[in-house]
Amino acid sequence: MEQATAAPTPAAPLPARDLTTLLETIGARDGRLVHLERTPARPARHADWPSWADPALVAALAASGIPRPWTHQAQAADSLHTGHHTVIATGTGSGKSLAAWLPAVSDILSAQRAAHAEGTSHRISAHGRRPTALYLAPTKALAADQAAALDRLSARIEAVQAGTASASRPILRSSTCDGDTPLPERDWARAHADIVLTNPDFLHFSLLPGHERWARFLRSLRYVVVDECHAYRGVLGAHVALVLRRLLRLARRLSPDSPGPTVLAASATAAEPALTAARLIGAPPADVVAITDDGAPAGERALALWQPALIDPWGADPAVAAAVPDPDAGTPGAPAPPSPRRSATAEASEVLVDLLSAGAQALVFVRSRRSAEIVAEHARRILTRSGPPLADLADAVAAYRGGYLPEERRALETDLRQGRLRALATTNALELGIDVTGLDAVLIAGWPGTRVSLGQQAGRAGRAGSPGVAVLIASDNPLDAYLVHHPEDVLTAPEATVFDPVNPYVLAPHLCAAASEAPLREADLALFGLPDESLLADLAERGALRRRPAGWFWNAALPGRPQDLTTLRGDGPPEVPIVESASGTVIGTAPGASADSSLHAGAVYMHQGRAYLVEELTEEAAIVTPRLAVGYRTRARERSSVRILAERSAETWGDGLTWSLGSVEVTSQVTGYNKLALPRMEVVSQHTLDMPERVLPTAAVWWTIPLEACEAVGVVPARLPGALHGAEHASIGILPLLATCDRWDIGGLSTALHPQTMRPTVFVHDGAAGGAGFAERGHRAGARWLEATLDVVAQCRCATGCPSCIQSPKCGNNNEPLDKAGAIALLRLLAQAARSARSAPHAP
């Protein structure tokens, strides 16, 4: 058994109050509640069990409290059972997984009964003919959660059958397989499992390259369940789409007489679900059935849009000062300018205490690991200072984030489910469908990046038909400021999921992997989105593939496996273990891509309220030492440059303004760090670091303005760097509204004279190798993007720039120089030129 940390004693619930009324009351102070959207309760709509559903399964579900399925569950299950690829896109907590298990488990049990009736159930061949199902989750935690649910269902099926006189009592065998699964358990799964629950990484690195050992399972594969498929966007989505296509291709090769597996994709409510699912599996959209009419009950919901009050940045509120700058709006490398508003994390901490005092159980979603630590610590401090009975709740508040060890996270999940924890401050690690029920409220500190994520996070409140409230608290950045004052953009239909499976940086290594699993043939070109054989020929010219009469083969003379040419979750450095120097104990992990800026020598690292000082960062680990009291925090400084590799599209607007899209190379380097004294986060010293350069080939959109055009609108050369810099920051802040990305997925650079364009230039680039489609979407939305950016900056009430308009939480240059008036002038010039070009008769 795992040794879990001691859980706090369950807090006695305080008198219940109307949480919506509470929010209206406290939100009226300083005009913080900008908008309140109420959604009425919705009754359940039920359907009958399909005629093909196995009776033992139906009885087991009834014993579990599911006497009848909801309409969307029955529709999706029936579509899947009849052989149609299906996507079910309904709300959080609507029981989407039942739509998959109903046909899969029914077929598995029915096949065993048929074999028993034929007298062949004891034969190995009969076992090999039993249908199998593969469940794919984006995280190990979600797969483990579903495995536990299947185990409970299997036990109920056995209990139901124990009370019958039938000699045939089929059993359901399931197994979880991931990178941590011991080899004997993998062997058992290959030989016996009816259902395997895993993640895309295990599929890519283990199951597909070892497909010969999985032949029994793959040959009988009838159903593939892709849970939380909306999570697969950007580069990760492209990788997963190609892994799924490799899986389906192999299954069809191993069982050529069958139509191949049928896929159920389970998604949050999203735009174009059929198109998204079709792109994931490489099928025509017409071949995918979309089930979107949600028959699950829902309690009354309220969504509040909330903007923290304006403050005196040099005021005396220590709780506010300690949280400035807002970690939700920044990453290591961000500056610490005075904020005109309370930070989203400080605001979330105090609203959380108000909700806890009303007896609510809540989650606080934050935008960074550091923010989870700060919100939990701040809330505990407020509760402790409040005295009894609120002080008794201090131990019932904790942080939950990536980087904790698995056993620590599982203990926190259990404590939340069982009520011992009343609140968790969490990153999006709890956004996906792990079974966390009974929550009354959700606070979302900072725009989560997409309306899909907003719906998923807000949907954690009021699950199982109960009422719930959610609060979106704006961080001090242009996008959040825009959204809380434009509820129509928050409440409109969710975005489409964007990913590009034909991105050559992503596709090439998957073609190599596929060729090693089975030779690539002409019929495979369409499956992988290839218009011709040119990419295969290029790989052959580079020595990766060999062409033979039977197809394209992986060059087995090369060292290593082709599956190791790429990782699904980014081609950057691997996770960095964080090791306590005295004991050698691993206390957590951090993303390798951000290790230079967050775990450099001299950095302060926080873990559940405890401070550690980083002694050394190597390729293997970060070595840290605990410190009882550290009176400062650290923030890295970076520099970057952009080199244009190829221009794919270029437009000329007006008097020589250009709007371009193409391939670029971004070079970045951490050059030092600042120490910031608590509580006011003032820079007290600067330190130099000698860190390696990081080079990123990617896609970018960029615009140039002739110097004379800048001077014509009053932006003389001395003002130009600040004006361009401000326009760049604001553009990056608004692009996520149009490109279905997170501002951390993109970056930018501005320069008064770029060595290639020889003009004032602003770049906005994708943050992933090869690009993720975000710059391309921004390029297509040129006029709308520029107009929205201009609107935010021009309407901001500040005089010279603030985090709500042209200051950026990501800036590596301390937000200097910045010129708000100059940025407005340049953005207005660009927006007018874009409108004119769009309305011209010759415009595309």
Automatic annotation (TrEMBL):
> Which residue numbers delimit the Helicase C-terminal domain?
347-526
Low complexity composition bias: residue spans:
321-333
What species was this sequence derived from? Actinomyces timonensis
Which parts of the sequence belong to the Helicase ATP-binding domain?
77-288
Can you name this protein?
DEAD/DEAH box helicase
Molecular function terms from GO: 3'-5' DNA helicase activity; ATP binding; nucleic acid binding
Keyword DNA damage (UniProt): no
Which Gene3D superfamilies does UniProt cross-reference here?
P-loop containing nucleotide triphosphate hydrolases (3.40.50.300)
Keyword set, alphabetical order = ATP-binding, Helicase, Hydrolase, Nucleotide-binding
Ranked from the top, the taxonomy reads: Bacteria, Bacillati, Actinomycetota, Actinomycetes, Actinomycetales
Identify one Pfam family in the record: MZB
